[in-house]
Structures are given as C-alpha cells and as structure tokens.
Amino acid sequence: MADEEINGDTDDIQHDKDKTQKKTAKHDSGVADLEKVTDYAEEKEISSQDISGALSLIGDRRNKEAAERLEKEKELQKVSVRKDDIELIVKEMEISRILAERTLREHRGDVVAALTTLTN
Asked: What DSSP assignment string belongs to 22-85?
C-alpha cells in the first residue's frame, strides 16, 4: 500500500509538471506571435551635423516666411483706404477698427468685397 501512495504522488507530480510545461509552451507561443507583429526599428545614431543641418533649414524657412509677411504688410500699408469706409465696416459688422482696416486693405479698398469676406 505504501508503494501505491508513492506512485500516486509521483503521478500527481508528473501531472503538475505537464501542466506547467503546457502553460510555458502557451506563453512562449504568445511571445512568438507578438514578435511576428511587432515592428523592430533599427536604432540609428544621429550625428550633430545632421541636427545642425536640420536646424539651419528650419531657421532659413522661418526667416523666409518672416520676410514674406513683412513684404505683405508693406504692400498693405501702401493701399489707401477711406476713413468713411472703415467706419462703415466697423459700424455694420461690429468688429474692431484694426480688423476692418486690414480687411479693407486686403481688398484694395473695395468696401463690397471686404464686407462680403467678413460675412462669409
């Protein structure tokens, strides 16, 4: 009878080992599946020269945009507008004087076009 208990315990231990191995196998297969769908990106070393080049490119682009804005503002200042037209737009549209004047200048003093733009 003692032999039966020992064999029974051994079977239980063997059964537990089998369950553990099955769980480990399931876990490993999940990891393998995850590795299949995961993208691996190579790590690259970024050189300081690349960074400097990118920063100078960004700086040049900003300077160019600032120059374009300044040029546009100069062109808008050259456009003459009547004070009566500005007052009309401010009164009718209930907007600030600065916005009314800017819109009127953008439309080269054309009150109808400026009002149309502000209503849309």
From this structure: HHHHHHHHHHHHHHHHS------PPPHHHHHHHHHHHHHHHHHHHHHHHHHHHHHHHS---HHH
Phi, psi of 113 (to 5 degrees): -65, -40
Structure tokens at 6: 């020992």
How would you class 93 by CB atoms within 10 Å of its CB: exposed for 0-12, middle for 13-18, buried for 19 or more?
Answer: middle
What are the residue ranges in the chain where pLDDT is below 70?
1-32, 34-36, 38-43
CA atoms within 13 A on the CB side of 61: 6
Q: What's the pLDDT tens digit per position in 28-43? A: 666 667 666 766 666 6
- Put simply, whether the predicted model's pTM sits higher than 0.85 gets the answer no
CB atoms within 10 A of CB 117: 13
Q: Read off the DSSP letter of residue 107.
A: T
Alpha-carbon Rg for the chain, nearest whole angstrom, is 38
Residue 112, SS3 per DSSP:
helix
